[in-house]
Structures are given as C-alpha cells and as structure tokens.
Amino acid sequence: MKSISYAIFRKFLLLFPIIWLEMSCSTVPTAENSLLTEASEVYAQASADPNTASLEALAEAKSALEKAKTSKDNETKEHFAYLAKGYAQIAITVAKRQALELERKKLLQPVPSLRENNNLNVNNQQLQQQIAYWQRNPNEQLVLILEDIWSKTEPADLLPEARLSLNTVARFLDPHPELQVIIKSYNDNSSNDQYDLGLSDRRAHAVKFALINRGIRSNRIRATQASRLLTQNQTATKHKQNNRVELIIFKEENKKL
Length: 257
Known about the structure:
Blueprint: H1 2-27, H2 31-47, H3 56-70, H4 74-108, H5 114-136, E1 142-146, H6 163-173, E2 179-185, H7 193-213, E3 221-225, H8 236-241, E4 245-251
Parallel strand pairs: 2-3
Antiparallel strand pairs: 1-4, 2-4
Pfam families: DUF4398 (PF14346), OmpA (PF00691)
Domain OmpA-like: 138-253
Protein name: OmpA/MotB protein
C-alpha cells in the first residue's frame, strides 16, 4: 500500500512542473492579448465621448476591433488590434480638436450691438402681431419673415439671438398640429449660383432643425431653397431682404403657394 502511494506521489512530483508551466502560460497575457486589451480600452474611451459618434475614425476602430477579436491567427489579431487602437486614438484627438474649435468660434462670435438687439426685438414684435392677426383670421395663409438671424462668420449658422423669434414661432405652431410649414430661404448673389443655392438650402434646414428641437414634428415642415433673388443687391436694406427666411404657414386644405 505504501509503495503504491509513493509511486503516485513520485508521479505527481514529475508532472508538477509541467502542470505549473501550463497554468503560468494560461494566466500571463501574450503580447497579442495585451495589445487587444489596450485597443479595447482606448475604443471604450473613444466611444464614451459623444463628440466621436459621427466620426469615421470611430467606425473604423470598431470594425478593426471586431476583426481582431475574431481572428484566429495571432499575427492578424495583433495587426487589427493595432489598427483599432490607432483609429480610436485618432477619434479622441479629432473630437477634442473639434470641441476646441467650436469654443473658439463661440469666443469669436461678435456680440450684438444695442441696435442689433433692438432689431431682433422689433422683428419678434412683428411676428407676434402677424400671429395675432392670423388668430383672428385663421383660414388665411400666414407668411412670417425672419431677418438678421445669421452669423457673420458662419453664414449658415443661426445667431443665438435668433432663438427669440424661433421660440415665438414654435409656441404658435405647437397647439396647432393642423398647420404645415414651408421654409423658404433667400440669400444674396455674392458668390456663384451653385454656392448660393447650397447656402440657401443649408439655411432653410437650419431653421427646420431649430423648430424640430423646439418640439415641432418634422413631417409638418418642408425646407426649400429659393432659386431667385427677392430684389437686386443695390442697398443695405435690399441686401438684408435677400438674406431673409420666409415661413409659409397654412392648413393643408387651404394650401396656397
């Protein structure tokens, strides 16, 4: 009996180094697994940043990381893990740069003068008067005019001060789900036709998105570009008219364009 126990013990002693080596190898990460772990961590950091959501680099990082995780060959796994980590780092860097650029633009945004603020208040009062008139004659088509609402540095960006007029329009539209809106954006002919039409389209959609963000359903709004000038650019007043936005508001059954 003792001889059998000793034989078993001796066999265990001979096998122990092999068992220990296998256990050690299974717990110590390889270079490939270490790189994959790093790539996964950097991708998680990048995807947690809301500013990277629309970046192509983040999509590339996700694709490469998935290929790295499913690759059987260590060399291929390491290659895609390296790519995933690189793309994720690019996404983080680009997102930070874009955020800084946005802050820079905000700092450079010209502060409206007292006269400009007065113009905005006047415009909003005119909107309120037009809306009040429509409420007394609700079967008529309503055309609201928005002026002085565009940034001077980014011509398709709404000024922060434009929210006053947009809030007025949204508050009017909200309790009237039967009303539809067509947004017509005009701009001057200071550039070539292709650019002007593109700018007109971007401006119309900027107003549409602003109304959607204020709770107006997108299927009630149609944004269109204007293909002609309202007037020739001869004076500052006419120049302003050519950079206006018309909101044509109507009931579907009374559509008149």
